[in-house]
């Protein structure tokens, strides 16, 4: 009997010493497992006489129940402890200071695009959006750059199935916008009356097979187009000079219209700017291509080039952003590094 009491007590101690469920299961095995102490006692009954078996058996059973009870209680206690610990760990300290959520901001190129749109809006220009996947017609042929034209070689791009391509410039928007404008005012044109002028800018993403510190395979352009009955190169100079001086907040900014060639303009000019002061002062910096819209392009817009004329330009908002903020590597704009981007908040 005393042996059994001692056994129960040592089981209780072993269970109390177990501080994890795994330890407890190990302790249980030592008493109640297949070769556990209680189990071995049961096996020993086989050698006893029927009378002894009955007495001993009953006593061992009582001891076994006591061990099982102790085990059950300890299991519950461990589970309670675990729950209490978990509740404590997950409790909310409402007196802690809040976590700061840094304010977001627009991407520097988006800031530039917004700025461009605002300035041209103030000069009465609409803003048009067009597809980045273009047809050969709009990207090249309608812009007086037919198949085999040498100017195409400077516009290597990405082709998609079905013969379309990722537009190499925003110039196709000249045609798209003008054609829909002409369609809207066809009745006036048919009646020989004057059509409202086309005055539009078209900002957006453009693509070329190019990649280094100043070229990215995806970049931005902003097209400009003003077509009317008497819009000339002089108007281009006024509008673009006004734009640049406003954009860079410098009334003394100098512009240079350098003769150049584009198939869709005649004459054509590259536009360079020079800052009067600051780190870039004294250098000519190219910011846009431009020119008087070619008669063939006016015709492709559905207009009579004898009556309608105007100018177009295409500028690089990425370049403008680099110049405005003094950024020297274009790739920084497209890496998505928050340390760089957060400086423009
Ligand atoms: N599309 C030309 C380019 O990407 C830029 C350009 C030049 C646009 C002259 C124009 C223009 O509208 O008149 O190289």
Polypeptide structure, described:
The protein has two domains: 2-89; 108-344, Bira Bifunctional Protein, Domain 2 (BirA Bifunctional Protein, domain 2, 2-Layer Sandwich). 44% of the residues lie in helices and 18% in strands. The protein has helices at residues 2-17, 21-32, 37-44, 50-89, 108-122, 136-139, 172-184, 186-190, 233-247, 295-300, 317-325, 332-335, 338-341, and strands spanning 126-127, 133-134, 165-166, 198-207, 218-228, 254-262, 265-274, 285-293, 309-315. The strands form two sheets. Strands 1-4-5-9-8-7-6 form a seven-stranded mixed β-sheet. It has a two-stranded antiparallel sheet with strand order 2-3. Strand 6 and strand 7 form a beta hairpin. Helix 1 packs antiparallel against helix 2. The chain is rod-shaped, with a radius of gyration of 42 Å. 3,4-dihydroxyphenylalanine is lined by residues 169, 171, 223, 262, 265, 289-291, 312-314.
List the helices and strands and how they pair.
Blueprint: H1 2-17, H2 21-32, H3 37-44, H4 50-89, H5 108-122, E1 126-127, E2 133-134, H6 136-139, E3 165-166, H7 172-184, H8 186-190, E4 198-207, E5 218-228, H9 233-247, E6 254-262, E7 265-274, E8 285-293, H10 295-300, E9 309-315, H11 317-325, H12 332-335, H13 338-341
Parallel strand pairs: 1-4
Antiparallel strand pairs: 2-3, 4-5, 5-9, 6-7, 7-8, 8-9
The site of 3,4-dihydroxyphenylalanine has 11 residues, from strand 8 and strand 9.
CATH topology of the largest domain: BirA Bifunctional Protein, domain 2
Q: What is the typical, i.e. mean, pLDDT?
A: 94
Unique ligands: 3,4-dihydroxyphenylalanine
- Provide the CATH architecture of the largest domain: 2-Layer Sandwich
Secondary-structure-based class equals alpha+beta
Large-scale geometry: rod-shaped
CATH class of the largest domain: Alpha Beta
The CATH homologous superfamily of the largest domain corresponds to: Bira Bifunctional Protein, Domain 2
Distance between the first and last residues' Cα = 83 Å
Oligomeric category: single chain
Rg on CA atoms, Å: 42 Å
Order of helices and strands: HHHHHEEHEHHEEHEEEHEHHH
Kindly estimate the percentage of residues that lie in beta strands according to DSSP.
15-25%
- Poorly predicted ranges (pLDDT <50, ≥5 residues)? none
**Tally of separate helices:** 13
How does the major sheet shape up?
7 strands, mixed
Strand arrangement in the largest pleated sheet: 1-4-5-9-8-7-6
């Amino acid at each position: 009997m005393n042996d059994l009491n001692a056994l129960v007590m040592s089981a209780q101690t072993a269970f109390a010493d177990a501080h994890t469920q795994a330890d407890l299961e190990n302790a249980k095995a030592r008493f109640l497992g297949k070769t556990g102490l209680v189990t071995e006692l049961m096996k020993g009954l086989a050698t006893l006489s029927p009378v002894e078996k009955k007495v001993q058996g009953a006593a061992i059973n009582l001891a076994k129940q006591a061990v099982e009870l102790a085990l059950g209680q300890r299991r519950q206690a461990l589970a309670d402890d675990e729950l209490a610990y978990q509740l404590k760990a997950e409790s909310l300290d409402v007196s802690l200071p809040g976590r700061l959520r840094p304010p977001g901001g627009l991407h520097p190129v988006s800031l530039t695009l917004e700025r461009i749109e605002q300035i041209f809006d103030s000069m009465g220009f609409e803003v048009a959006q067009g597809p980045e996947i273009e047809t050969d017609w709009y990207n090249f042929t309608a812009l007086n750059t037919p198949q085999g034209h040498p100017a195409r070689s400077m516009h290597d791009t990405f082709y998609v199935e079905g013969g379309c391509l990722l537009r190499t410039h925003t110039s196709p928007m000249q045609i798209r916008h003008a054609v829909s404008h002409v369609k809207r005012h066809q009745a006036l044109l048919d009646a020989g009356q004057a059509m409202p002028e086309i005055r539009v800018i078209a900002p957006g993403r453009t693509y070329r097979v190019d990649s280094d510190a100043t070229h990215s395979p995806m970049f931005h352009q902003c097209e400009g187009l003003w077509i009317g009955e008497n819009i000339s190169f002089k108007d281009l100079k006024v509008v673009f000079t006004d734009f640049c001086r406003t954009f860079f907040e410098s009334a003394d900014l100098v512009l240079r219209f350098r003769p150049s060639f584009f198939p869709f303009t005649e004459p054509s000019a590259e536009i360079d700017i020079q800052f009067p002061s600051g780190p870039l002062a004294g250098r000519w910096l190219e910011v846009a291509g431009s020119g008087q819209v070619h008669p063939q392009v006016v015709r492709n817009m559905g207009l009579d080039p004898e009556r309608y004329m105007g100018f177009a330009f295409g500028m690089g908002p990425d370049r403008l952003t680099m110049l405005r903020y003094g950024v020297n590597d274009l790739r920084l704009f497209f890496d998505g590094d928050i340390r760089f981007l957060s400086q423009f908040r």
